[in-house]
Specification:
This protein is α+β, with helices and mostly antiparallel strands. Helix content is 59%, strand content 13%. The protein is built from seven helices and seven strands, in the order ααααβαββαββαββ.
Length: 345
C-alpha cells in the first residue's frame, strides 16, 4: 500500500503493532496467572499502552512538522534569490515525492532563467555588433556628404563620391536584409515552400547570376554534377545559401583562381560542395566562421559584416541539412553541405 511507502510511517506502524502485541500478551499472562485481580492490571497495562502510542504519534508528527518547516525554509530561500536551495528528499513516500517534484520545478526554473540570461546577453552583443557594423558606413556617408557639399561645382568629385555613397548604402541595405533573414529563420516565421528541385537547374540560375562578376574579376565558375540529381528544398532559400558561399568565394580569391560548385547523390544524401582556390581560412578561425559577426584577425576583408555564413548555416539547418568547412591557408576552402533524401523521393 502507498500509505506504508514512507519509512517513518512504516516504523510508526510497526511500533504501534508492537505495543498492541505487548498489551495482548501481558493481558493473557495476567488472566492466566492471577485471574481474580487481572482486571485492574489489565486497565493499567492499557493505560500504559495508550500513553506509549500517543508518545509515538507525537514524536512522528513532530518529525513531520520539522521536515515541513525545513522544506518551507528552503522554498523561502529560493524565492529570496538563493537558486541553489533544495529540499532534502532522499527518503521514500508521498511527501518526499512532492519534495522531489518541487526540486525538479526549481531546476526547470533555473534552466529557463539561464536561457533568458543567455538570450539577453546575445541580444546585447548583437546590438553592439550591429551598431559597430553600421557605424563605419554611416561615418563614411557623413564624410562623403560633407565633401559633396563643398565640391558641388566639380562634376567629377560629385560623381566619384556619389558612387562611394551608393556603395555604403548598399552595404547598409545588405546588412539590414541579412539581419532580417537570420532573425526570421531563428524565430521560425519563415515558411519553407519545399518541392522537388533539380539541382542542375538551380546551378544554372546561379551561373547566370554570377558569371558576369566572375568574368570581370578574371575568375572561373565551374559547375559539375548529375543532371537528374533532385533536392527537396525551397529553391529561393537554397539559392540564397549557395549565393552567399559563391560571393564569399569570389571575395577571397585572386585573378586566375576558380570556384567549383559540384553536386552528387549517395544512397540517402544529396551533397553539394563549393570549392575555391583562394587564400583559405586560418585554422584558428575555422571553428568560428559560422558565428554571427565573427571577424578574423587574420582576414583582410574590411567590408564584410560576418553574417553571410551564419545565414547560410541557418538556411541549411532549416532544410534538415548540415554544413562544414575544410580549409588550408593559401590552398583554398571547401564548403560541404549534406541533405538527407526524404523517403518519398
Amino acid at each position: 500500500m502507498k500509505i506504508f511507502a514512507d519509512r517513518r510511517i512504516k516504523t510508526l506502524f510497526i511500533q504501534i503493532l508492537a505495543c498492541v502485541g505487548g498489551f495482548t500478551t501481558a493481558a493473557a499472562l495476567l488472566l492466566w496467572s492471577i485471574p481474580q485481580d487481572a482486571a485492574g492490571w489489565i486497565w493499567l497495562a492499557a493505560l500504559c499502552m495508550t500513553v506509549l502510542i500517543l508518545a509515538l504519534l507525537l514524536r512522528y508528527f513532530h518529525a513531520e512538522h520539522r521536515t515541513m518547516e525545513q522544506a518551507v525554509q528552503q522554498i523561502e530561500d529560493y524565492l529570496a534569490g538563493s537558486h541553489d536551495a533544495r529540499i532534502e528528499c532522499d527518503d521514500e513516500g508521498e511527501l518526499n515525492r512532492l519534495f522531489h517534484e518541487v526540486n525538479s520545478l526549481a531546476a526547470i526554473l533555473n534552466a529557463h532563467a539561464e536561457n533568458q540570461q543567455r538570450a539577453r546577453q546575445f541580444l546585447k552583443d548583437s546590438i553592439s555588433d550591429i551598431s559597430h557594423q553600421l557605424k563605419t558606413p554611416l561615418a563614411a556617408l557623413s564624410i562623403y556628404n560633407g565633401i559633396l557639399q563643398q565640391e558641388q561645382k566639380d562634376p567629377e568629385v560629385v560623381r566619384q563620391f556619389t558612387a562611394l555613397s551608393e556603395q555604403e548604402l548598399d552595404r547598409i541595405e545588405t546588412l539590414v536584409q541579412n539581419l532580417l533573414k537570420v532573425t526570421k529563420l531563428d524565430a521560425g516565421t519563415v515558411l519553407m515552400e519545399k518541392s522537388e528541385q533539380r539541382v542542375a537547374e538551380l546551378m544554372q540560375a546561379l551561373g547566370q547570376r554570377f558569371s558576369i562578376q566572375a568574368e570581370r574579376q578574371g575568375k572561373r565558375l565551374i559547375f559539375s554534377g548529375g543532371e537528374h540529381v533532385v533536392l527537396f528544398c525551397d529553391a529561393h532559400w537554397i539559392g540564397e545559401a549557395l549565393s552567399n558561399l559563391i560571393k564569399n568565394a569570389l571575395d577571397h580569391t585572386r585573378t586566375g583562381d576558380f570556384i567549383q560548385i559540384e553536386w552528387c547523390t549517395f544512397a540517402s544524401v544529396v551533397q553539394i560542395k563549393v570549392r575555391d582556390t583562394g587564400c583559405g581560412i586560418h585554422p584558428e578561425d575555422l571553428p568560428h566562421i559560422f558565428k554571427r559577426f565573427y571577424r578574423s584577425r587574420f582576414s583582410k576583408d574590411t567590408q564584410g559584416a560576418g553574417l553571410g555564413l551564419a545565414l547560410t548555416k541557418s538556411i541549411v539547418e532549416a532544410h534538415g541539412g548540415t554544413i562544414e568547412a575544410d580549409s588550408q591557408p593559401g590552398h583554398g576552402t571547401v564548403f560541404t553541405m549534406n541533405f538527407l533524401i526524404p523517403t518519398k523521393l
